[in-house]
Here is the input.
Amino acid sequence: MQLHDATHTLRLGATLAKARGAVILIHGRGSSADDIISLAKAFNSSPDLAYLAPDATNGTWYPNRFLVPPAHNEPWLSSALAVIDTLVAEALAAGIPSERIGIVGFSQGACLALEYAARHPRRYAFVAGLSGALIGPTDNLRETANLCRTPLLIACADRDAHIPLEHVEHSAAALAAFNADVTKQIFPGSTHGVFSEEVEWLRRHASTFATPAIN
Here is the structure.
């Protein structure tokens, strides 16, 4: 069952055929591609990037909270992950190597970004989960993965009503064990949102696209 459709993707910036790199931006529950694409301003030092922001069906990638066993969010979860995989494959087919593909998500989209990286391990340009964690209970069994030192940001407010801090801590440790270069940012006294420190991290890692690839 195809619940989400990768063709419903907002595109900004360079075309994949001409881009030096690609950034996939994944919105949160009840939001849209039009909203998350505003994060593209964090990459203003790299105008030759392609930005791909898919739209979830009815604004929701999966129906239940990310804390429940993954099976409880099927078939929506697999469909959502398949959308990301389709866009990654499209970038690869256009000649953009995985180490020049960034994946960024906020809230429900953050959970998807981190989960996709854990299930499809390779070297990415960067992966960022803004107010999110890996999907499923903390005792969810996972296969060993190698993210090849991919720079990975996992960040959240300590008073976020949607994302328990223990899940953020667990996810950071799990992804580090998967050989990601993890940066963990916890914002004290704050609630659900995007923070300037996260935007600065994105801007700094996007600046690597300014240097042409060496073949």
Notes: The chain has one domain: 9-210. The first strand starts at residue 9 and ends at 13. DSSP finds five helices and seven strands in the chain.
